[in-house]
Amino acid sequence: MHPHMVIKSFLIIFCFIFSYYMTFFGSQQFRHSVFFAIVSGLMCAEIGMSIQHDANHGSYTQWPFFGYIMSATIDLVGVSSFMWRQQHVVGHHAFTNVNGYDPDIRVLKPNVWRLTREHPKRSHHNFQHIYLPLIYGILALKSVLYDDFASYFTGSIGHLKIPKMTRQEFLIFWGTKITYAIYMFALPGLFSHYDALDIIRLYVIIQLVFGWVLAFLFQVAHVVEEAAFPMVDSSSGRPMLARGWAASQVMSTANFNPKSIFWMHITGGLNHQIEHHLFPGVCHIYYPEISPIVRMTCEEYNVPYHSFPTFWAALIAHLKYLKVAGAKDFDFRLNG
User: Fold this and answer.
1) Where exactly are the transmembrane stretches of this chain (predicted)?
2) Is 4 left (phi over 0), alpha (psi -120 to 50) or beta?
3) What are the start-end ranges of the H helices in the chain?
4) Which of 75, 103, 155, 207 could cysteine-pair with 176, CB 3.0–4.6 Å?
């Protein structure tokens, strides 16, 4: 376990607790509470990127019990770690950008986006590059208040069937959901000087920031023109990974600003998504060290290695792809 992980984790958790307190109890003026609500949303995202992401991949620490505790930090900000592991670790990492397999690019209900040729086309998709960046903000709210419960009762996340929970997983799922409801709604309702409407407004601000940060940072890694979207064999129903799983992971993923220590720490290594997808069991602190090796190996075997110079370049590429994908007919890389 890298000492930087421990220091960063406890700093993030402290900042989240402090900003939560100041949002609902410590600030006397609403505009100050809005500021701390924004900070609280950022800290929720930091917990998602810099703590639980490594922990739920098993790369945070060599001590299983401590790793399990850190993986549950995402439960304490409203998102089920059990459901996150099913969608992200089992679904997304195994079948990155494969339509019908990767739950991260599944067709949503309502059908608000079109990311691959196989997705049904609707007239409003022509404008998805305009409205999706706004809708991204509600994804955390949707996950906290709807998705986890829908997955629990249906037993699936899109096409992905989820296993039955163990007794411990059941207790953690419902125990943390109840704990979240108590500290996020009941305590402010009972002890905050704000009325119910203001409490809801502050809560929504937290969730919007949480959703926007995570959505943009994850989307720029896979939903860009440079990334491949492997096809599914119509006869067997299996993904066609012509060059193998590892090459497909590289080709369906993109980095941004990989030499930046700031972005590495602030995103929990999400600027090194290629390295993460190849070595999800390696802590993100080490990505800058293995990145040159991965790049040279890709060059040696002629595997495309995509890296944007800045986050903003990656974001622009994502928005451009949304515009192209929203058109009736479009061409994009299908090899994987």
Assistant:
1) 6-22, 34-53, 65-84, 170-194, 200-221
2) alpha
3) 3-21, 30-46, 52-56, 64-71, 81-84, 128-135, 139-142, 148-154, 167-181, 187-191, 196-222, 245-251, 261-266, 273-278, 287-300, 311-325
4) 75
Supply the Cα-derived Rg of the chain in whole angstroms. 20
- Amino acid identity at 149: F
Q: Are 334 and 237 in contact (CB under 8 A)?
A: no
pLDDT for 240 = 66
**What's the pLDDT tens digit per position in 61-95?**
999 999 999 999 999 999 999 999 999 999 999 98
DSSP string, 249-306: HHHT-EEESTT-HHHHHHTTTGGGHHHHHH-TTS-GGGHHHHHHHHHHHHHHTT---E
74: left (phi over 0), alpha (psi -120 to 50) or beta: alpha
What tokens appear for 159 in the block?
Answer: 């096409």
Q: Distance of CA 323 to CAs 66, 113, 136, 253, Å? A: 44, 11, 16, 19
Q: Residue type for 121, please?
A: K
Residues sharing a CB contact under 8 Å with residue 55, sequence separation 6 or more, in sequence order: 61, 67, 68, 70, 71, 73
**pLDDT grade for 336, boundaries at 50, 70 and 90:** very low
Contacts (Cβ under 8 Å, ≥6 apart) of 71 = 52, 55, 56, 60, 81
The CA distances from residue 68 to 2, 61, 65, 125, in Å, are: 16, 9, 5, 40
